[in-house]
Amino acid sequence: MDSSGEEFAANREAMLDKLAQLESEHAKAIAGGGEKYVERHRKRGKLLARERIELLLDEDSPFLELSPLAAWGTDYQVGGSVVTGVGTVEGVECLIVANDPTVKGGSTNPAGLKKGLRAAEIAAENRLPTINLVESGGADLPTQKEIFIPGGRTFRNLTNSSAARIPTVALVFGSSTAGGAYLPGMSDYVVMVAERAKVFLGGPPLVKMATGEESDDESLGGAEMHARTSGLADYLAADEQDAIRLGRSIVKRLNWHKLGPSPKPDYDEPMYDAEDLLGIVPGDLRVPFDPREVIARIVDGSDFDEFKPLYGTSLVTGWANLHGYPVGILANAQGILFSEESQKATQFIQLANQNDTPLIFLHNTTGYMVGKEYEQAGIIKHGAMMINAVSNSRVPHLSVLMGASYGAGHYGMCGRAYGPRFLYAWPSAKSAVMGPQQLAGVLSIVARASAEARGQVYDEDGDKAMRAMVEQQIEAESLPMFLSGMLYDDGIIDPRDTRTVLGLSLSAIHNGPIKGAEGYGVFRM
């Protein structure tokens, strides 16, 4: 790769522009409810959600934040009023969920609920203890129709986690009311902050309306009452810092052990500079790029053993290590998946399952090839083989959308619906049923044929306007921030951070056993 050429410089500049836009959107999530509500929260002597997380984590350890752009493009605050991520507490990787009380008192909106459920899914799949930092007024009542019924999974997930011997801890800093009271009620360990935590099914106004009984917050659901009388609180903390200390102490005593194999203790950094990743992806995703240039900058020692390099050359497959963990990699080279690539991928995925090796999918595909020649050669059968292999593979999968991820190629490369343990996107990524121009063109052809069948003159000006509108809509809906807002990825990452993010994800994955599939469904040969 020529990092001094004009094309590289243009690609790099375009990527830096996208990263600047991404940073401004992340800033909205970090800002929480805004300066007014942050100041009000501080005047109450309380820590912000991210400050609580920082104190909870081991000093100078990383925090892999998940879904930071949840709710982007909606009427809700970017971030969904909750912070989620994977961090290390007393040497144990934990899934951490923190309500942001500066956003409508930490109440749960539909985007925040979806984000929380995705976090619970990650905890369950990767055997991660969960720590909830609770301060929430419960459901955002105006949107209750979108929260009440699916929201019950939150509590079901807690009890399922406990049954699977994956610990759950609740540190209650403020309100945890109504349905939210079941969050500490269904956690294995509960810490409440004295004179701050309030946990009850119905607050004083609701109790008054329902029973006529007069009561106050403390006697009804205060931390002291729950520690001394109801027994709901296992630990009574003097203040927020003390609650975090107690939370760390709980994790310290979990006697937690990873079940997956340990990484190799000694490994080399890549031989090539991660800065180069900024200039690899062209601004026009129809222009192909060599994914080996990406692989060389993320795997240990840039050491990659390619599998079947002369067959199905538009898909690169091979073996490597990443932060000491063995991985298999599938990466799109020329965008289109043909029969040969599909068969190659199927065999490679089976091999990874035979030797219990996690798989990394690097996306840049426009989908499976179409046309009479390819249909007659069995592209549907061969594409189905690849999708079958991905669907029934049992080793952990990680996906990174670098460029295009269109059509059934998104499925074959383990898109969101195929259950990757983590899925990330670069700012350059796009994902849709097909490219904007292709989709608009298909609609135009169908409309033109329909008009001809009715014997009508086709409206060329209307066709031009329709195509422009459709292309604009599909382009907007295929951009990574739109998709991230809908929780179709776990975060948009700086390409330079790819190695680190994948390393943290692999470490989290190895909390559970790594074992391949012992059987597959019927492959249509």
Automatic annotation (TrEMBL):
PROSITE patterns in alphabetical order: COA_CT_CTER, COA_CT_NTER
Signal peptide: none
Pfam families recorded: Carboxyl_trans (PF01039)
Superkingdom as given in the UniProt entry: Bacteria
Gene3D superfamilies the UniProt entry points to: 2-enoyl-CoA Hydratase, Chain A, domain 1 (3.90.226.10)
All copies of domain CoA carboxyltransferase C-terminal, residue ranges: 266-508
Domain CoA carboxyltransferase N-terminal, chain residue ranges per copy: 15-266
Protein's recorded name: Acyl-CoA carboxylase subunit beta
Species of origin: Amycolatopsis acididurans
Taxonomic lineage from the root: Bacteria, Bacillati, Actinomycetota, Actinomycetes, Pseudonocardiales
